[in-house]
């Protein structure tokens, strides 16, 4: 069974993006998340992009070929992971060439003035709202993950590029997301923990279908949690009632062993007998048995317990 992250990425990888500016923004974020770069002796750049998701790999390859004007050489390498899950790794290699250099310049990786490599500041690609959404979609496809809601609310981006992580943090803050930051080994991690924020993010980047499962599971989880809270509350209240009843029965028994019951007022006699005769009865049930109000029964029991307490104190002396 594929992970929830894989389900989300499979849907996003089929998102129909037609705007060239948004394709550039999405591809730029994808490559920053999952690509490495090579330089040949002619100072031409090449790209190696690796992903575990075949649909994401196809999308990257389609974007690269769609944006390149001129011949560009690519190859696909599939490797089996040696780790426990043994997932396939798909590596798209874009051979170094003038065309690749031009593509990387358009994507913001190579500075247009020839001053070198841009490590992560892509503000030129993010002038439009739609491009910002596409950029975040690419970042999630390249290095994002999200838990199923029944396992806890958590969505994150993980990257080893510090400047790119700051760019992402600034962008997510612009959209008002309550983003948290941490580090994990050599990576910078940005994360969301609130269910509403995760839902808003997934909807914004185009994951509409999986949102139905997410919200359905979230609602079921919240109902289950509410039921558990009510059960726990009822259990706690029941335990308090049982403990109080046992204490009262013990005190009534002690009191009646040491005094003549006829010395007590009639209402206290009735209450003490009822408490002993019905040890499992709640305060409301005792009130019905005695034909008085709940507060009246509580007042009588407190008075009887106070008498038992005074008796205990006298015995100590």
How would you explain this protein's 3D organization?
With 317 residues, this protein is an alpha+beta fold. The protein folds into two domains: 4-206, Endonuclease I-creI (Roll); 225-316, no CATH class. Helix content is 57%, strand content 14%. It is built from eleven helices and eight strands. The protein has helices spanning 4-12, 20-34, 54-67, 98-106, 129-143, 162-174, 195-205, 208-258, 266-277, 283-290, 294-316; strands at 35-39, 45-51, 74-80, 88-94, 144-146, 155-159, 180-184, 187-192. The strands form two sheets. It has a four-stranded antiparallel sheet. Strands 5-6-8-7 form a four-stranded antiparallel sheet.
Short structural summary:
The protein has 317 residues and is of the alpha+beta class. It is built from 11 helices and 8 strands. The mean pLDDT is 84.
Which SSEs are present, and which pair or pack?
Blueprint lengths: L3 H9 L7 H15 E5 L5 E7 L2 H14 L6 E7 L7 E7 L3 H9 L22 H15 E3 L8 E5 L2 H13 L5 E5 L2 E6 L2 H11 L2 H51 L7 H12 L5 H8 L3 H23 L1
Antiparallel strand pairs: 1-2, 2-4, 3-4, 5-6, 6-8, 7-8
CATH superfamily of the largest domain: Homing endonucleases
Taken in chain order, the helices and strands follow as HHEEHEEHHEEHEEHHHHH
Order of strands across the main sheet:
1-2-4-3
> How many H/I helices?
11
* CA-CA gap between termini: 73 Å
CATH fold title of the largest domain: Endonuclease I-creI
What is the second-level CATH architecture of the largest domain?
Roll
Biggest sheet, open or closed, and with what strands and sense? 4 strands, antiparallel
Q: What is the global morphology? A: rod-shaped
